[in-house]
Design a protein that fits this description.
Layout (H helix, E strand, L loop, with lengths): L3 E5 L3 H13 L3 E5 L2 H10 L4 E4 L8 H9 L9 E2 L1
Parallel strand pairs: 1-2, 1-3, 3-4
Amino acid sequence: MAKTVLTVDDSASIRQMVSFTLKSAGYDVLEAVDGMDGLEKAKGRPVSLVLTDQNMPRMDGLSLIKQLRALPQYRSVPIRC
């Protein structure tokens, strides 16, 4: 079973580039358009890594990280902003 990576970025072109690269390397990829969307998707399905932009509408990357770290299942998951 492939590991799942959550990519969170408000730029569609960045999401597409990162998703293409990760899928080519054998990962499953979830894409989110901002922090709120990313948080919802992370709650709905466990992920092995979170890659997030910092500046986004509705919820920025740092707020997303704080929200994820408050969830027991994301206390030790690698997150890169």
